[in-house]
Amino acid sequence: MKDVSPGEQAPSASRDTATGSRDLSAASTEELIRELLLRLGEDPSREGLARTPERVRKSLQWLTSGSMLQPAVVVGEAIFQSDRQRREELLRLVRP
Questions:
Q1: Cα dist. 24→19, 32, 35, 38, 61 in Å?
Q2: How confident is the model at residue 90 (pLDDT cuts 50, 70, 90)?
Q3: 65-78 per-residue burial string, b: 16 or more CB within 10 A, e: under 16
Q4: CB 30 within 8 A of CB 57
Q5: What is the 3-state secondary structure (H, E, C) of 11-29?
Q6: CB 23, CB 15: distance < 8 Å
């Protein structure tokens, strides 16, 4: 992986213009995490860190998995107006 000097833009993953999704393979993501560990002064091959790139990749996948979902699909019909909101709307209509 090439070092990026200050002011230089790091290479980005290719983006599928039709879907807007990024092509980040597991291998490339884990390589980026290994590079980060190296830059932090760690040895990514040592026993305690050997599986860290995989664990970080999986955690990032899980943490960001909802970013591509439509809120209406996730929430469904759970959105409703409360009585308090209705009262406040009525008060706004009644009070000048």
A1: 14, 10, 15, 20, 11
A2: low
A3: eeeeeeeeeeeeee
A4: yes
A5: CCCCECCCCCCECCCHHHH
A6: yes
Tell me the per-residue pLDDT of 37-81, one tens digit each, with 9 for 90 and over: 999 999 999 999 999 999 999 999 999 888 888 887 877 777 666
d(CA 51, CA 34): 10
For every residue of 18-73, which 3-state class applies, written as one string?
CCCCECCCHHHHHHHHHHHHHHCCCCCCCCCCCCHHHHHHHHHHHHHHHHHCCHHH
Here the contacts of 74-79 (C-beta below 8 Å, separation 24 or greater) are none
Stated pTM of the model:
0.52
In this model, does residue 32 exceed pLDDT 80?
Answer: yes
Q: What is the pLDDT of residue 29?
A: 93
